[in-house]
């Protein structure tokens, strides 16, 4: 692997399709495209347009990083399928990155040690997806609460007692119940504009993970759905 790899990063687990091309630690291009569907109709075209604008051929990609959720089930599948196809065509390794970690990462990089960031996105069904990350005294980021889905009340309960908690993600504005509780709670910081997954962070984290543990299996890499789909829930009810 080259010292300054060209990394393609993709995240489609929310309505905001996030794309980036990064060479080493230099951001070559970054795109955000809002879709009311599942991204399938625009993702490949947007990636191809980005390649053309940067004068880069898809087969020259050295690494593909992809957000694996949690988030939209269909969106996650579309993004992962396209990421796998590009990695296969380029003969490049692929790394799956938590979409929630990618949201917290930009903020954690500038916060002082002993800071805590919660990534929270709208999961529908009156629930949110969330995870908590803490930066220790040595600057290392640790996941202190793994990705899960629950009601806003459960998130607030599990994050209770954390001083100066930074909360990022679209749930802070899209889920009214959570928004009202956060605004009324002390020691909560709502920085903007950290609203969704960061494609640049996915690229940088993918490179970091690749150096630490190598690539993910192209065949075995799957989205992190966290919870059952509507179809699975309905099937379970019918067969209960």
Describe the structure.
This protein is α/β, with parallel strands linked by helices and 240 residues long. It folds into two domains: 6-99 and 197-238, 2-Layer Sandwich (Nucleotidyltransferase, domain 5), CATH 3.30.420.40; 100-189, Nucleotidyltransferase, domain 5. The chain contains eight helices and ten strands. The protein has helices spanning 43-54, 73-90, 99-108, 152-158, 171-174, 176-184, 199-213, 230-238, and strands at 6-11, 16-23, 26-34, 63-67, 94-97, 116-124, 127-135, 141-150, 165-168, 188-189. It has a five-stranded mixed beta sheet with strand order 3-2-1-4-5, with helices on both faces. Strands 8-7-6-9-10 form a five-stranded mixed beta sheet. Helix 3 packs across helix 7. The chain is globular. The N and C termini lie far apart (51 Å).
């Amino acid at each position: 692997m080259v010292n300054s790899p060209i990394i393609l990063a993709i995240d489609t687990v929310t309505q905001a399709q996030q794309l980036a091309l990064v060479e080493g630690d230099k951001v070559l291009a970054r795109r955000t495209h809002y879709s009311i569907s599942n991204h399938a109709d625009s993702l490949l075209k947007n990636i191809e347009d980005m390649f053309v604008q940067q004068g880069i051929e898809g087969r020259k990609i050295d690494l593909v990083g992809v957000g694996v959720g949690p988030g939209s089930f269909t969106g996650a599948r579309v993004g992962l399928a396209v990421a796998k196809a590009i990695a296969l065509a380029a003969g490049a390794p692929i790394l799956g990155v938590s979409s929630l970690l990618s949201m917290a990462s930009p903020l954690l990089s500038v916060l002082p040690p002993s800071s805590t960031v919660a990534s929270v996105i709208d999961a529908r069904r009156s629930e949110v997806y969330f995870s908590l990350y803490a930066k220790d005294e040595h600057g290392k980021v640790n996941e202190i609460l793994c990705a899960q889905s629950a009601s806003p009340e459960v998130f607030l309960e599990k994050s209770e007692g954390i001083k100066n908690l930074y909360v990022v993600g679209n749930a802070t504005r899209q889920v009214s119940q959570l928004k009202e509780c956060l605004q009324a709670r002390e020691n909560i910081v709502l920085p903007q504009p950290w609203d969704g997954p960061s494609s640049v962070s996915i690229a940088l984290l993918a490179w970091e993970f690749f150096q630490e543990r190598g690539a993910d299996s192209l065949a075995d890499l799957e989205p992190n759905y966290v919870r059952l789909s509507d179809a699975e829930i309905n099937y379970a009810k019918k067969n209960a």
